[in-house]
Write a structure and sequence with these properties.
With 445 residues, the protein is an alpha+beta fold. The protein folds into three domains: 182 residues, PAS domain (Beta-Lactamase); 66 residues, Helix Hairpins; 147 residues, Histidine kinase-like ATPase, C-terminal domain (Heat Shock Protein 90, 2-Layer Sandwich). It is built from ten helices and twelve strands. It is globular.
């Protein structure tokens, strides 16, 4: 009996595994391409909103967005292109996405790019000025993803089928055994001596499913909290910007106060941009879109450039910055490591005491590069230390917002360290200071 059930069950599992493998292979490219397109649309809408609000002083600020950005006037002449190799002499008025944007406000198209020689997705939005913002991203790499994954899919599918075969045999035999041996004339055989029901062996699986459900519920709760925090953090400066701009538009602001109001609007807009940039960066880490791009460089020299960039902020609070350690060459993503150190040193300045000190130490500990940033600041209470690397968590909410913090800096630091195969350690005492140590693998690959 159990052999027949096993064969049927095993055949069903193998059929499902093979079918799912084929289905996922087909859907992967479409889903990945759709996500890339939606990402371009979202980024275009975000940048268009910033351009319309005057958040960017010049188009040059668009160069580091990670996607090719082009601004085209109403006649199709390029005003700016973030791609250095672009030919600005070529008129774009005949492009489908451009004509759609001029006519309907937005437009998109997929075609082979003459610049990159690959299938490219274009998305355009008409700006308030009448010019057109266009973002583009190459899709050729997505089409090559599925063929590249086929060997892995075959190996994984085969392994699952073999494993499922043996597990199905053992589990079927074990589950069916009580039914084979049961005496249906005697109902007592359905329970043990204590009256407990049969199939106690199923309880470990039920217990595992229960705990998996708890894990899923926790993840959903975390996502809901993150979404609520994002909404709150964005709504606060937006509300201020809306109120101030409405007062200015209605003529309720005196001429002498216009400059002050404009400064406040600019400050809130910059905060919005910082929050959005940090959210985009974290989403890239979550979706594993951050490129490795590891190169060899001297991290000690990189620390010097970070200190130079923050000297002015440090001078405002009379905070002195000292660099100790020795030159150390590591293989890592220099841009991300620069961001990691900048966030840590900036925090040490923000939450320091007037006339305090910040010490950065670069040293080698075994296979690790240790970056230690220590300050003589306000410190972190013990009950907050286990959560400061969570997104939007602030040990002192009012002080953090007053200093312009987004609540995401330390979370980004943690992700960057983990991206380099490392981790972060925190040591702090309230009223004494804080020391954060980041360990990065010296030879990341």
């Amino acid at each position: 009996m159990h052999r027949r059930i096993f064969r049927n069950f095993a055949a069903l599992i193998m059929l499902c595994v093979v079918g799912l493998a084929v289905l996922f292979s087909i859907l992967f490219m479409r889903a990945a391409q759709a996500r890339e397109m939606e990402s371009v649309r979202d980024k275009a809408r975000l940048i268009a909103g910033m351009l319309n609000s005057g958040a960017f002083e010049s188009y040059d600020a668009l160069a580091g967005s990670g996607t090719r950005v082009t601004v085209i006037d109403q006649r199709g002449r390029p005003l700016f292109d973030s791609y250095a190799g672009a030919d600005l002499a070529v008129n774009r008025s005949d492009r489908a996405e451009f004509t759609q944007a001029i006519a309907y406000g937005s437009g998109e198209a997929v075609r082979n790019s003459a610049t990159f020689g690959a299938s490219t997705f274009y998305y355009a939005i008409r700006l308030d000025s009448g010019s057109v913002l266009r973002l583009s991203r190459t899709l050729g790499s997505l089409r090559a993803a599925v063929p590249a994954m086929l060997p892995d899919i075959v190996i994984i599918t085969t392994a699952i089928i073999v494993l499922a075969y043996f597990l199905t045999y053992r589990l079927t035999k074990r589950i069916i055994k009580p039914l084979v041996e049961v005496d249906f004339e005697n109902t007592q055989t359905f329970t043990d001596a204590s009256g407990e029901a049969l199939y106690e062996e199923l309880w470990p699986y039920i217990n595992k499913i229960f705990h998996q459900k708890l894990d899923i519920d926790n993840q959903l709760t975390h996502r809901r909290e993150f979404s609520a925090n994002v909404s709150h953090e964005l709504k606060t400066p937006l509300t201020t910007i809306s109120a101030l701009s409405e007062m200015m538009a209605s003529g309720m602001v005196k001429d002498d106060d216009v400059r002050d109001f404009a400064g406040k609007i600019s400050s809130r807009a910059k905060r919005l941009i910082n929050i959005i940039d940090d959210i985009i960066r974290l989403s890239e880490f979550d979706e594993r879109k951050v490129e490795k791009d590891f190169t060899a460089f001297d991290i000690y020299e990189l620390a010097k450039t970070v200190i130079a960039a923050l000297q002015e902020k440090a001078a405002e609070k009379a905070v002195s910055i000292e660099l100790t350690g020795q030159p150390l060459t590591i293989k890592a993503n220099s841009r991300l490591v620069d961001e990691l150190m900048y966030n840590l040193v900036e925090n040490s300045i923000k939450y320091n005491k007037e006339g305090g000190n910040v010490t950065i130490n670069i040293c080698e500990e075994g296979e690790w590069c240790k970056i230690s940033v220590e300050d003589t600041g306000i410190g972190i209470a013990k009950e907050h230390q286990g959560r400061v690397f969570e997104r939007f968590y602030r040990a002192d909410n009012s002080r953090s917002k007053k200093t312009g913090g987004t609540g995401l800096g330390l979370s980004i630091v943690k992700h960057i360290a983990e991206h380099h195969g490392g981790h972060v350690e925190l040591d702090s005492a309230e009223g004494v200071g804080t020391a954060v140590a980041c360990y990065l693998s010296i030879q990341c690959s």
